[in-house]
Amino acid sequence: MPPAPRTPVRPRPGLGKTVPTPGTGRKGIARVTKRSRRKLDRDTIRGITRGDIRRLARRGGVKRISGAIYDDVRECLVTHLRGILKDCATYVEHAQRRTITVVDVIFALKRQGRPIYGFDPETHDPRKSHRYATRRR
């Protein structure tokens, strides 16, 4: 005998959406009180603050910084990161993966002519990795 058709459950006002509960071992419908939020379109490069740019400039030896330079630095940073991430995505797609690894970033930087040393097996010195852990006091 076929099962009787179920009547749809209507959500009460203010209680959110009703969704089935797959994988919980229970039959029926659970109420979810999570409200959907509208995603704000923010310019996330603004997360690189003036202080961050000043610290990077100080590390590079800059003594005095003009006030108009911060937006230009952010634009250059976005351009540089887009190039690196484009190459990383190429490596990830070729390897049929979905996660960017440290090695992908190292290869992308090496391809662009700006290698970073100390992370890849070619330039890693295992004797130096525990240098500070084995030092006597």
Structural notes for this entry:
The protein is mainly alpha-helical and 137 residues long. The protein is built from 4 helices and 2 strands, in the order E-E-H-H-H-H. It has a two-stranded antiparallel ribbon with strand order 1-2. A hairpin with an 8-residue loop joins strand 1 (17-20) and strand 2. The mean pLDDT is 79.
Order of helices and strands: EEHHHH
Question: End-to-end distance, in Å?
Answer: 82 Å
Silhouette: flat
The percent range for helix content is 25-40%
**How would you sum up the major sheet?**
2 strands, antiparallel
Question: How would you state the average pLDDT, rounded?
Answer: 79
Structural class designation: mainly alpha
**Radius of gyration over alpha carbons?**
26 Å
**Tally of helical runs:** 4
For the largest sheet, list the strands in their spatial order: 1-2
- Segments where pLDDT lies below 50 for 5+ residues? none
- Beta-strand fraction estimate: 5-15%
- β-strand number: 2
Keywords:
137 residues; mainly alpha; 4 helices; flat
Short structural description:
This protein has 137 residues and is mainly alpha-helical. 36% of the residues lie in helices and 6% in strands.
List the helices and strands and how they pair.
Layout (H helix, E strand, L loop, with lengths): L16 E4 L8 E4 L17 H10 L9 H26 L7 H10 L14 H4 L8
Antiparallel strand pairs: 1-2
